[in-house]
Amino acid sequence: MNVLIVFAHPEPKSLNGAVKDVAVSTLKEDGNQVKVSDLYGMEFKAALDQDDFLNRENSGRFNPIMEQLHAAQTDSFASDIQEEMDKIKWADLIIFQFPIWYGGMPAIMKGWTERVFASGFSSDMFQGKIYDKGLMKGKKAMLSFTTGGPEENYYMDIPDKDPAKLAPVITENLKFSGFEVLKPFVIFGVIMLSEEDAEKHFEEYRKLLREL
Ligand SMILES: Cc1cc2nc3c(=O)[nH]c(=O)nc-3n(C[C@H](O)[C@H](O)[C@H](O)COP(=O)(O)O)c2cc1C
């Protein structure tokens, strides 16, 4: 299996960095091919803007979604976007590794999704290429994230404690593009996490990755 890990943390020695490293080593040991997009390491540009498009359809009023469709038709995305798209085409599974910051992905990763999962590349709602006809059909996606807040805060409105219900907006967007979304891996309440408990989580993650 070809696996792309999209990693968003400014500190490689962070817990998130360690979880990413566990994934890289475990997946490689099991014979998978692994690529990592280390978004901070790459200084990935987070903000979608006019510079993302090398061959504008309309050089007057900037309409992001129409320019994305046009760039997809004319192979004219900026090179940093195109490089990520090539990795996505290669990947069977994309793992998103991140800390929860203000209820979601860090801005650099949110920006990656806005720029790279462009209309015309990941989905095309004008042509009905969404959900089971989405352009990412056949690929899998998985979220792996850590939270500062304790588990009980996150499951307050989820009595069955199903982690698949934790990030409904992100999950819905991935499904919209045709991804099969796997159950996320979550480490809750990491502010006070001991090394011993971290190791237990790493072992749990290794087991989950081996069962994929
Ligand atoms: C800017 C920022 C926003 C945060 N927002 C949240 C939040 O909304 N919910 C939460 O549970 N923890 C939040 N946290 C705590 C982080 O999730 C926590 O520090 C992180 O998961 C620890 O992983 P790390 O050791 O790899 O940095 C936030 C931390 C930062 C720096």
Please give a handful of descriptors for the protein shown.
alpha/beta; single chain; 6 strands; 15% strand; Rossmann fold; 212 residues; six-stranded parallel β-sheet; binds flavin mononucleotide; 7 helices
Descriptive account of the structure:
The radius of gyration is 18 Å and the shape is globular. Helices cover 36% and strands 15% of the residues. By secondary structure, the protein is α/β, with parallel strands linked by helices. It has helices at 15-29, 64-74, 79-90, 107-116, 151-154, 168-176, 195-210; strands at 2-7, 33-38, 93-99, 140-146, 180-181, 185-187. The chain has one domain (2-210): Flavodoxin domain (Rossmann fold, 3-Layer(aba) Sandwich), CATH 3.40.50. The structure holds flavin mononucleotide (FMN).
CATH top level label: Alpha Beta
Beta-strand proportion:
5-15%
Over all CA atoms, what is the radius of gyration? 18 Å
In CATH terms, the superfamily is Flavodoxin domain
* CATH-defined architecture: 3-Layer(aba) Sandwich
Ions and ligands: flavin mononucleotide
Please report the total strand number as a whole number: 6
Low-confidence stretches: none
Helical/strand content category: alpha/beta
Number of separate helices: 7
Helical amount: 25-40%
Question: What name is given to the CATH topology?
Answer: Rossmann fold
Element order, helices and strands? EHEHHEHEHHEEH
Distance between the termini: 10 Å
* Main β-sheet description: 6 strands, parallel
Shape: globular
Q: What's the rounded overall pLDDT mean?
A: 97
Number of domains: 1
